[in-house]
Structure formats: C-alpha cells, structure tokens
Input
Amino acid sequence: MIAYTVLKAAHVVAVLVFVSGVVATSLFLASMRTPEPHAISAMKRWDTRVTTPAMLLVWALGLTLAMMGHWFASPWLIAKMAFVALISAAHGVNSGRLHRRTETARASGRGVHAALVLAAVAVAVLLVVIKPT
Output
C-alpha cells in the first residue's frame, strides 16, 4: 500500500511538471513575435531536460499504477489515456515548433493553444477522480 501511495504521489508531481512545461511552451510560442535566440535556447533546454523526462515519468508511473490497480479494462482509463496521448501530442507539436525556431528565425507556428492542453488535463483528472463506469 505504501509503494502505491508513493508511486501515485510521484505520478502527480510528474504530471504537474509535465503539464506546466507544455503550457509554458504553448504560451511562449504564442507570445513570441520576433524570435529572441537566447529565450528560445533557454526554453528548448527546459523542454529537453525537464518537460520531456517528466512526460516519460507520467507514462511510466501511470502505466505502473494502472497495472497495480488492474484497471486496463476500465473504460475511464482508456478514455483518460486518450486525453494523456492528446497532451503528449501537444507536447510533441510544441517541441517540434520550438526546435524549428532555433534552426531559423523565420520558422512559423504558434504551437498548441494552452487552453486546449488545460481542457484535456481537466478531463483526464475528472476521469481519474470520478472513475465512471
């Protein structure tokens, strides 16, 4: 029971770090009119060193918790995983656009809107807490 609780707490922390990184990158890309090379490099480093590892932890810990709870056949988990996949895809889109911005100052694209990411997070959290059948 203690191992489950520790894994769950670690999962929640990883989710907070991951979602914060995705939202920050979304806002950064949306607000950037003239690319500032130093700011782009700093955001790219954060994405590579913090947001991406947090995403990997979210998936690893989440799948471990699902195995421990025997929830893989649960409709709520399948739906939640779809929303987590959507958030992960948003991270991929944002990360790709951020990396292209470091290659050329003319790269365009705003990234996935932060409100879409937060809406997906809200639905995923509701599914986990309520666990509808």
